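Every protein is a chain of amino acids, and every chain bends into a shape of its own. The fold becomes a row of whole numbers, each drawn from a learned catalogue of backbone shapes. The protein below has been through that process, and both of its lines are reproduced in full.
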Amino acid sequence: FIGTSMESGARTATTVVIAVAAAGIIPGVVASTGLGPNLTSLILAVSGESLVLLLLITGVSSIILGMGMPTTVTYIILVSLLGSAISSIGGIPILAAHLFILYFGVIADITPPVAVAAYAASGIAKSDQFQTGVEAFSLSLNKAIVPFAFVLSPGILLLRGTGGAESVHTLTAADIADLGFFVPEVLIPVICVFLGVYALGPTVIGYLYSRVSQTERALFALSAFLLMAPMLLLNAAFDLGGFLGLVGEVPNTVPVDLAMRAVGGALFGALAVKNRREAGDKAAPTVAEQAEPTD
């Protein structure tokens, strides 16, 4: 039994070992050619002082560089190329930065034109490859928003603090007992992320209890953003206002975050109740339908 288990483990680990060994060449090339620092410098120069622009550029770069590669190789390569760009700005925890890059690197498997996983599925379903990739990306839209929630609300990852490893730690019993921190920065954001993912359902599919109009789909999308990553919208608005010289720094405070999540929750609740009532009205029989036919 032990010998069989060891043999099975070795066979299973072979592909991972090969991938890691092959991927090890890439960081060496990056370090020797100076590509990593140059790419990081380019991203930082283009994004300027905008955290939102930095995250968007890094996300798109992760999708492009992650196309057609296994997950393990994708993670190793992307972290070596892009990890320092995120973690060096805004006091973002290293774990949040790595998960941000990993999520977008994995999204590459379902993002056309090189949607490897979607193309494999289309071969099984005998469907159009590109359309399958588009549908796969649409149905996985939440994966493009959750990474922003990781970066902007590290409490979702059960982390406390910002910046490097010396100032960030995983939650302890004392942190959980500190309700002034745990409830607004961990519990509420986690619940809101679940609600936000649920709100993206009618946004993508166009149906909840009944059909959803285009305007309602846009409002569901807005509620999802407010629930999952409210500071992303606020940072974007202040970046635009700063570019136009209208506003100053972003009020990155917990009360502002909670207020925006409350607005998103209220908007989602109102839309869900309205849609439920519309479904009930359509299902309810009219007076003529209730009347029994007479001879």
